[in-house]
Specification:
The complex is a heterotrimer of chains A (about 325), B (about 350) and C (about 425). By secondary structure, chain A is mainly alpha-helical. Chain A has helices at about 5-30, 35-40, 50-55, 65-75, 90-125, 130-145, 145-160, 175-180, 185-210, 215-220, 225-265, 270-275, 280-310. The model of chain B is unreliable at about 1-10 and about 335-343 (pLDDT under 50). Classes of the chains: A mainly alpha (about 325), B mainly alpha (about 350), C alpha/beta (about 425). Chain A: Belongs to the binding-protein-dependent transport system permease family.
């Protein structure tokens, strides 16, 4: 089947999942203790009409499924209402912070891939000997290190003791040199565990491929070791690597929540934590939804990549 | 030089018959012509072989030793009293972890306080030793519950297929779209903080990988012909599942579960760090790091280094053991466990 | 193509072992044979006899934990010698240095043969390399010591001079590249062609092996071909760079009987037309009869009989061969029971004493437990100089005269069998 038909098929399957995701997000936030109305009224005079007015504003008089529908309808338009805390629009708040999170995530991902894949290949080629063993241990250390601890350690050594970096990010534009310099430590923190996982998976999938018959055929054709590995084996290993890379996106989102706390990085992750501690429902809903939808699309892209990489997967 | 001329291929098939290779001779022949192959010195039993391989893996043994040591330390750190009976009377920890000592605030490591003291004068060594209890119990309990939820669901989905499979798998897909920590955070926001709330949140996130794993195993076993054969002989569904699927699936599940403990401990610590874990002030390793950041900037490194080191050591050891189990049980790496630790 | 009457390939006393946790597995245990240009040679035996390892050793494709322990493999293709002398002049054997490339006879472009062109090579391999490159010199005769060649030199030989076909075409092909590309890459490397020329050649090859619509099929992936077509594609790859020897490891075992017949016909035709020698590895005596000129039977890592195909079928000498042949059922066979060879081949880590076959041999005597029979000429009882299959050799004490009771079997040829009747063996 051609790539287009596969794409359409996958999109169709994605719809119920997206639906479920929105449903789950909505239910979760509905289950949060306390309603937004009570929260707002804490800080204001309660006049008789105000309560009803607020309830209407939040659609709290409608049956639950209508509330869901209204919320969903607005969400698709990226209208999440206003933050309970800051009175700014939720979308606005998120949008200002999004670039910073994207920068951090992207840098982390880049580090993870540029370290993970080559190391994995090297480990696979050296299967069994000391280089391989050493890389395995290095990977295990990378996975076991809690990212918040790593971040704190890096802060301690490089910012506090050596003074090479600032302790708090500067208040500049996202792509300014000062910001880019600051983001190095957080990006390393974020990328480390990811790179370890990518390395392990690249290694194991390459080792598996190296044992396959087509490798023997390629060697029997007289192709050089390098050609066999890079052109034949690596290409076949890519499917597994893409799988893990896609998972890493979720992993990095996770990580950025924590890493942004450690480095006081003004991104969406910090906003999320603040929203929870401050019970800012609309913000919470919006962020969680946004994250989930992104992941679903990332998986779609990953699926498309598979079928491009491996012509057999186009059923 | 071509061989054409020397070829006389015969077109007639079946023309040649050879007789005289008399196999009846073997029955009466003297024994000295019989030759038996020696039994292989390599043991055949899967379990024994696995254990042998595990024992040979030095890093795994180191990991096991470290875990044992940590377990020992944390059990004997402070007395354990159940229902008024002192089950464990020893106190390895030099100080009471909850004892504030305002005379010794934020002290760097000394002989009295090898790990230093924190902002309220509590001894960090004692807190680290005691705090292991939270991490270990959270890890083990979460994984156990998640297994008991995920394994049956996954097996059902795989075995019966059809709409059961669809439903369960859609649920898995939906949950999968939420990153581990984000989902856990959201759940804790709903449930509130505390020990059992945290476990619930973590279980809800972790059961998914076991369900998927089991489903995969069941599906691949289902394809196997011996299941068809068993059915043809009239075996009942349940016995098929138990007799055939479970033994085969055991290996990757054990590997995943072991590694899962590590994942859970890491994420529980992360929640603690974010202030969403157990009650503030509890000596859980992650929570101890929550305040660490501000102390760090003032140069009080010991408040951050030691609890974090404890987490690191524990997770590393668990991973070493988990990897050792995986290599012991499946040296070629064909089980579907994969390197994936779902974070 | 080798010069004069020297065999294209000589394998002498080859030994390859695998070192495992169970011990040393002697997969190839002193094996010698030779193949002439264009000859079709079969290596026959049960699974585990060491046949595949012999072929992989030839191509030096043995990896850990295996090692080629000893022996010589001499390859006398003049084009191989010329290619290697050009690319690796430092490997040419000269008076002052040993090497794995031996240039024995040179011919200058003008057609005259110098008084001792071999001397030229021996003194100045680098100049000779340049002359070979620009065509002013040609190699008339020479040989390569395959086991001494470095890996880069082997890469030149593999695919270009000696090509290999494996058993299962489905896994032998890389699933992510088109069939055409898999042929073209070999061509680009060995024949030094550009993309367009390589594509042309690949399509030509696909056509040659009987794949219809070759031009469209060039861009198809392996999984889009049927089993038989896949094997044809594999043969196309093997043939693409004009090798002088193709090693085929059970090429038809994974295919249906009807497809098998087509593939064998194809191999026969290609061998005749392009003058390519074939080393066929198989356990199927029927395939051997169909395709080959000479055959070597292996048991437990050692050769037990070697002869031309007619002699093997009409006059088998070794009890094992006899056992194999008598276990083939035939139409019109009026026996009640098949005489199969009872028991199984020993694990190559631990071999029986004396003759490895004695536990399964109906004619075994005490001498067979004590002495391992050497491979001897069945006429004279003496070992042979050259492993030439024209001399019928067998490894059985019967032929060295040490057997008291002798071996007794009978080969009958039925005169009344129909020409094409009877199933394939």
């Amino acid at each position: 089947m051609s790539l287009q038909r596969y794409l359409i098929k996958r999109l169709l399957v994605m719809i119920p999942v997206l639906f479920g995701v929105t449903l789950l997000t909505f239910s979760l936030t509905k289950m949060l203790p306390g309603s937004p109305v009570d929260y707002i009224l804490q800080f204001q005079e309660t006049t008789p009409g105000l309560r009803d007015q607020l309830r209407a504003q939040f659609n709290l008089d409608e049956p639950v499924y209508i509330q869901y529908w209204l919320w969903l309808r607005d969400a698709v338009m990226l209208d999440f209402g206003d933050s309970l805390i800051s009175d700014r629009s939720v979308s606005g708040a998120i949008l200002t912070r999004l670039p910073k999170t994207l920068l951090l995530g992207f840098m982390g991902f880049a580090i993870a891939i540029s370290i993970g894949i080559p190391l994995g290949v090297i480990a696979a080629i050296n299967n069994g000997n000391t280089v391989d063993e050493a890389s395995r241990v290095a990977a295990l250390i990378g996975i076991a290190t809690p990212n918040f601890w790593l971040g704190l350690m890096l802060l301690l050594v490089f910012s506090v003791q050596l003074g090479l970096f600032r302790v708090i990010p500067p208040d500049k534009a996202v792509l300014s040199p000062a910001m880019l310099k600051f983001v190095i430590l957080p990006a390393i923190t974020l990328g480390t565990a990811s790179s370890a996982l990518i390395m392990r998976l690249t290694r194991s999938s390459m080792v598996e491929e190296l044992n396959k018959d087509y490798v023997r055929t390629a060697k029997a054709k007289g192709l050089s070791e390098r050609t066999v590995i890079v052109k034949h084996v690596l290409r076949n290993s890519m499917v597994s690597v893409v799988t893990v890379a896609a998972i890493q996106v979720a992993f990095i989102v996770n990580g950025s929540v924590v890493v942004e706390q450690v480095f006081s990085w003004p991104g969406v992750g910090r906003l999320l934590i603040d929203a929870i501690t401050q019970r800012d429902l609309p913000v919470l809903q919006a962020i969680v939804l946004m994250i989930a939808v992104t992941i679903v699309f990332v998986n779609l892209v990953a699926d498309l990549l598979y079928s491009w990489l491996d012509p057999r997967i186009r059923y | 030089m071509s061989h054409e001329s020397q070829r006389t291929t015969t077109n007639e098939r079946g023309r040649i018959r050879v007789t005289g290779f008399d196999t009846s001779v073997f029955e009466d022949r003297d024994e000295r012509f019989d030759w038996q192959q020696d039994e292989s010195t390599v043991s055949r039993d899967r379990l024994t072989r696995a254990w042998e391989r595990f024992k040979r893996n030095r890093t795994a043994l180191v990991g096991l030793a470290i875990i044992a040591l940590m377990l020992f330390t944390t059990i004997f750190a402070r007395p354990i009293v159940i229902e008024g009976i002192t089950v464990q009377p020893f106190s390895l920890a030099p100080f009471d972890p909850t004892n504030s000592n305002f005379a010794a605030l934020n002290e760097a490591p000394t002989a009295t306080h090898p790990f230093g003291t924190d902002w309220s004068g509590k001894d960090i060594l004692s807190r680290v030793m005691f705090g292991g209890r939270y991490s270990l119990t959270i890890g083990v309990i979460t994984v156990s519950i998640a297994l008991s939820v995920g394994v049956p669901l996954g097996a059902l989905a795989g075995y019966y297929g059809g709409w059961i499979d669809e439903v369960i798998m859609r649920l898995v897909d939906i949950l999968y779209a939420f990153p581990f920590l984000v989902l856990a955070i959201a759940l804790i926001a709903v449930l509130g903080q505390g020990f059992w709330n945290m476990i619930t949140a973590l279980v809800l996130v972790v059961w998914i990988s076991y369900a998927r794993l089991l489903r995969g195993e069941v599906l691949s076993v289902k394809e196997n012909e011996y299941v068809t054969a068993a059915k043809a002989l009239g075996a009942r569904d349940r016995s098929i599942i138990f007799r055939h699927v479970v033994p085969n699936a055991m290996a990757p599940v054990i590997v995943q579960a072991t590694l899962g403990i590590g994942t859970v401990v890491l994420n529980a610590a992360a929640l603690g760090f974010l202030g969403l874990g157990l009650e503030p002030g509890s000596p859980e390793w992650g929570s101890m790091l929550a305040r660490g950041r501000s102390s760090l900037i003032q140069g009080q490194w010991w408040i951050t280094v030691f609890p974090g080191l404890a987490i690191f050591l524990f997770v590393l050891s668990i991973n070493l053991v988990g990897d050792g189990v995986r290599d012991a049980v499946d040296p070629q790496g064909d089980t579907s466990g994969g390197a994936g630790v779902r974070e | 193509m080798s010069a004069n009457d020297e065999p294209l390939l000589s394998v002498d006393n080859l030994q390859t072992s695998f070192y495992t946790e169970e011990g040393e597995v002697k997969a190839v245990n002193d094996v010698s044979y030779q193949i002439d240009s264009g000859e079709r040679f079969a290596v026959v035996g049960e699974s585990g006899a060491g046949k595949s390892v012999t072929s992989l050793s030839l191509m030096r494709l043995i990896d850990d934990p295996g090692r080629i322990k000893g022996g010589d493999v001499t390859f006398r293709s003049t084009s191989a010698v010329a290619t290697l002398a050009r690319e690796f002049p430092e490997g040419v054997a000269t008076e002052n240095s040993s090497g794995y490339i031996h240039v024995d006879e040179l011919r200058a472009e003008s057609g005259s043969v110098g008084s001792d062109p071999g001397a030229t090579v021996r003194d100045q391999p680098k100049e000779v390399a340049t002359d070979l490159e620009d065509g002013s010199l040609h190699v008339e005769a020479g040989h390569v010591d395959v086991l001494d060649a470095p890996d880069e030199a082997m890469q030149e030989l593999r695919g270009a001079e000696i090509a290999m076909i494996f058993q299962d075409p489905h896994t032998a092909l890389n699933p992510v590249y088109t069939i055409g590309e898999q042929i073209a890459e070999a061509v680009r490397k060995h024949l030094d062609m550009g993309d367009a020329a390589a594509r042309e050649r690949a399509i030509e090859m696909l056509d040659r092996v009987g794949i219809p619509d070759a031009e469209e099929r060039y861009s198809d992936y392996p999984h889009e071909f049927s089993g038989g077509m896949q094997q044809r594609a594999v043969i196309a790859i093997a043939l693409s760079c004009d090798p002088s020897l193709i090693v085929a490891d059970e090429p038809t075992t994974a295919l249906d009987v009807t497809i098998e017949a087509q593939i064998l016909d194809l191999l026969k035709e290609l061998s005749d037309d392009e003058d390519v020698a074939i080393q066929l590895i198989t356990h199927d005596l029927g395939v051997v009869a169909e395709l080959c000129d000479s055959v070597m039977v292996m048991y437990a890592g050692k050769p037990v009989e070697r002869s031309s195909v007619e002699e093997l079928y009409y006059d088998p000498k070794h009890p094992y061969t006899v056992g194999l042949m008598s276990s083939i059922p035939r139409i019109g066979d009026d026996r009640d029971r098949l005489d199969t060879v009872p028991g199984t081949m020993p694990d190559l880590v631990q071999l029986p004493s004396g003759c490895s076959f004695h536990p399964r041999c109906p004619y075994a005597e005490d001498a067979c437990i004590q002495h391992e029979p050497p491979l001897v000429d069945t006429e004279t009882g003496e070992p042979v100089e050259e492993p030439d299959a024209d001399i019928h050799t067998a490894a059985c004490l019967e032929y060295t005269g040490d057997l008291q009771d002798g071996v007794e079997f009978d080969v009958q040829i039925r005169e009344d069998a129909a020409a094409d009747g009877g199933e394939s063996l």
